Amino acid sequence: MTDTAAAPSGPRCLLIVEDDPHLAETLAGAFARRGYEVHAATREEAAIGLAGRYDFTHAIVDLKLAEGSGLGVVKALGEKAAPPATVVLTGFAAISTAVEAIKLGATQYLAKPATAREIEAAFGHRAGMAMPEIEAPQIGVKAQEWELIQRTLAETGFNISETARRLGMHRRTLARKLAAHRAATEGMDLEDDGEP
């Protein structure tokens, strides 16, 4: 997904920073249907550029980007005269990154996958309100394996053969795992309810 903007449909202006094209498009569609003007970026530099051009009221920022870091985007958004309500999403949940994101201005921190409903509810958190305790999620073996695959893919520039070599698995096995994960995430309903 390239850096894009949907047609304005209300006073709420949302920045989505996510390098997974499928997830970015799904979130953009879900929030456009909820009345947000949606802008999306896949890289830190592009997101910071958009933050300088638009007065965002809301932001969804993935911490792990293929190019750059979501923390840089959170920092840039937090330094604006009117910082947006910023929800940080990550599949690599850790207490240290959660604390850092909150210090830099994030409103809330959610582990992936999070539904549009959960994200919108997290936008409502404000400084001074009781902050829910952030716990590192219990990550199963499959989730740990998936995180390792994702990290290695990013390190190799998404070269499947090199990733398989580094992970010590056959290329076809890795391809099957990627296809299975893609099929599972495409079937996931990020809306999770019938509400707009």
TrEMBL record:
InterPro entries: CheY-like_superfamily, Homeodomain-like_sf, HTH_Fis, Sig_transdc_resp-reg_receiver, WalR-like. One of its GO terms (biological process) is regulation of DNA-templated transcription. GO terms for cellular component: cytosol; protein-DNA complex. The keyword Transmembrane helix does not apply. Residues 13-127 form the Response regulatory domain. Gene3D superfamilies: 3.40.50.2300, Homeodomain-like. GO terms for molecular function: phosphorelay response regulator activity; transcription cis-regulatory region binding. The modification 4-aspartylphosphate is found at D62. The keyword DNA-binding applies. Keywords: DNA-binding, Phosphoprotein, Transcription, Transcription regulation, Two-component regulatory system. PANTHER family: REGULATOR OF RPOS, TWO-COMPONENT RESPONSE REGULATOR ORR33. This is Two-component system response regulator RegA.
